[in-house]
Specification:
Number of helices: 12
Distance between the termini: 18 Å
Number of strands: 0
Structural class: mainly alpha
Helix content: over 70%
Number of domains: 1
Largest sheet: none
Order of helices and strands: HHHHHHHHHHHH
Strand content: under 5%
């Protein structure tokens, strides 16, 4: 895995993490196109640099994120992350197997795109315009929706935002809660993957640490720009454009798999 590979994958991650298009799916396809072998380190890299992108939330929303007077907010995040922690442990092996299948990504890109074309017409009357009105029950349900993203290509962002809209949150509040929820989710996922890698291979080599650090920094910077764009666009226009993109991307990925160009 070269520095050029790191830069490409990190840019892809930063651009797609907060868009409802699946950053994991894009990295799986990109690594396949680049011809990178599916090593344990590549799988670790693809998970860990998502944390770098997610930390953009902490920077852009630092006033909200570090307002310790709003202790209920942290409680809701803890409740919302529980389903992902439980199911992530139970289905860890199956999830890792799916991460090696670009065809799965193509199918979920396509199906997810069709959903996004119509989702704005399904949830038309939101009643929650402030995250303080999100109950613990609603937070838990959103956390269950987020678990759909364990299937590569589904998009954690899309799943949790749609879950929020289904629970009567406005698009903006659903998007912001999705961003906040991503922080504990990806901290837990990264910690688990680092621990698993350590058990299997021992300590990371210095060269591997440098690649992870570079990938996280690039993903972080790119994600800040992408997040600002997404929130503004979502408030004004909704999901339809992303639906068309996912459908086109899904068709292209399935054609590339069918032709044997990516495996």
């Amino acid at each position: 895995m070269s520095i050029l590979h790191v830069i490409i994958l990190a840019i892809v991650e930063g651009l797609t993490e907060f868009l409802p298009v699946s950053s994991t799916g894009h990295m799986i396809v990109t690594s396949s196109i680049l011809g990178l072998p599916k090593t344990d380190f590549l799988e670790l890299f693809e998970i860990c640099i998502q944390l770098g992108a997610i930390l953009a939330v902490v920077v852009l929303y630092w006033k909200k994120f570090f307002d310790f007077a709003r202790w209920r907010f942290y409680g809701k995040l803890i409740v919302a992350v529980i389903p992902a922690l439980v199911l992530g442990i139970i289905f860890a092996h199956k999830i890792k197997e799916l991460l090696k299948e670009p065809a799965v990504v193509g199918v979920t890109f396509l199906l997810g795109g069709i959903v996004l074309l119509f989702i704005d017409n399904v949830f038309k009357r939101p009643t929650i315009e402030d995250e303080e009105n999100i109950t613990y029950t609603k937070a838990f349900v959103i956390g269950i929706w987020q678990c759909l993203a364990m299937i590569p290509g589904v998009s954690r962002s899309a799943a949790s935002i749609i879950g929020g809209m289904q629970q009567k949150l406005t698009r903006q509040v659903a998007a912001e809660f999705s961003f906040f929820l991503a922080v504990p989710t990806m901290v837990a996922a990264t910690a688990k993957d680092l621990l698993d890698y350590h058990k299997a291979h021992g300590l990371l080599e210095s060269s591997e640490i440098k690649l992870l650090a570079l990938g996280n920094v690039i993903a972080f910077v790119v994600a800040i720009l992408a997040m600002k764009f997404f929130v503004d666009y979502l408030k004004k226009h909704g999901f339809r454009l992303f639906g068309y993109y996912r459908i086109l991307a899904g068709i292209i990925v399935l054609l590339l798999v069918w032709k044997g160009i990516i495996q």
